[in-house]
Amino acid sequence: MDPRELGELGLIEVLRRRAGAPGRRWRIGIGDDAALLASRAGTDLVWTADALVEDVHFRWSTADPRALGRKALRVNLSDLSAMGARPLGFLLTLAIPGDAPGARVDGFARGLLAEARDAGCPLVGGDTSRAARWCISISALGELPRGRALRRDAARPGDALLVVGELGGSALGLHVLEHGGPRDASERRFVRMHRLPRVPLGAGPLLARRGWARTAIDVSDGLARDLGHVLASSGVGAEVELGALPLPRGLARACAQRGLEPWPLALSGGEDYALLVAAPPDAPGDVRLARALDTRVTRIGRVVAGRGCRWLRDGTVEQPSGIEGFEHFKPL
Ligand code: ADP
Ligand code: MG
User: Which ligand is nearest to the CA of 28?
Assistant: First the structure.
């Protein structure tokens, strides 16, 4: 898919052909001034956007085009799931250099459209432009039963705090990439977690439909920061047991090899896209939820009255150091 050979319209045509028909809900997909969706009574729509920018979110020296294509859509699907919504479709604004290698564009498009097929979330339109660096901007639309959204301001004292998925693996993978690359199979596994996080995409919609969660947020900027958003919006506090955080198998050992502490990675490392959930007291416990969701689910603490988070280790308060989340505009 050489941009100079194909030109703008040629690129769009290849995307349109490969994307295929968008399914019955879409009256119009790629090709008109805008996409047209048949609306459905009794539902709320959820609309999100997330961009991946070259040299900010990824570097071509370490990125894999197919994985990047999948990740670009997956991070948006993660936002929809965190609201409790199922995906309907997405728009792609693709800005790339004119001399972008054809194989790179091709790999990116294959990964992206494979993710779209797997998720049942068709590409229905977008925009295409030339740019000095890659900017992949995706906007995805989702739907859920009316009034069922998993809002950040809905956590209540007495709720259980659960993590669906794992924390810290992506941050270790990034560290490995930025410090000489993987040295063994274990490090390669963490690099894969960074390139393409395993996101529990079915979890949000199921929790919302069953009423098993009040709040969910996908952990993209680190647990400490994302939990902080929930607590501030809901006007509540929390107690979290550090020993309970769900680290991926082998993380502690791999960290030790690199002279790193696992806790800062789990608390402030971004891009794991685990789901942090506040579950009401009458919801099923973590073991039953893990079975229902077919994913790791871990109870890490509880919501309490008050403000801010108390971090505990074996029940005593501990102030972990270095828990800053990712921030674009302020030096950490
Ligand atoms: P306009 O002149 O209205 O901006 P474009 O020529 O940019 O139209 O786009 C033509 C059609 O192709 C539109 O339906 C648009 O949604 C779609 N399109 C453009 N770029 C992309 C893209 N990167 N991915 C998917 N669809 C695209
Ligand atoms: Mg356009």
Answer: 1
Q: Say if ligand 1 is within 6 A of residue 129 CB.
A: no
- Site to substitute for ligand 1 among 127, 134, 139, most atoms within 8 A of C-beta: 127
Residue with the smallest CA separation from ligand 1 atom 11 is: 31
Which pTM does this prediction carry?
A: 0.93
DSSP-derived 3-state class of residue 304: strand
Using one digit for the tens of pLDDT, what is the confidence trace for 141-152?
A: 999 999 999 999
E strand or H helix at 288: helix 286-293
Nearest CA residue ID for atom 18, ligand 1: 126
Size (the chain), residues: 332
Residue 121 and residue 211: Cα distance in Å, rounded? Answer: 24
Rounded to an integer, what distance in angstroms lies between the CA atom of residue 89 and that of residue 122?
Answer: 5
Distance CA 219, CA 200 (A): 12
User: In this structure, is the dihedral angle defined by the CA atoms of residues 28, 33, 35 and 41, taken in order, positive or negative?
Assistant: negative
pLDDT confidence band for 324 (50 / 70 / 90): low
Give CA angle at 12 (28, 65), nearest 5°: 120
Residues 239, 159: Cα–Cα separation, whole Å: 11
How many C-beta neighbours within 10 Å does residue 262 have?
21
Give the atom of ligand 1 at the shortest distance from the alpha carbon of 33. 3
Q: What is residue 165's DSSP assignment?
A: S
Q: What are phi and psi of 261, to 5 degrees?
A: -90, 135
Give the mean pLDDT of 256-273. 92
Identify whether the C-beta of residue 148 lies closer than 8 Å to the C-beta of residue 154: no
Q: What's the CA-to-centroid distance between 126 and ligand 1, angstroms?
A: 5
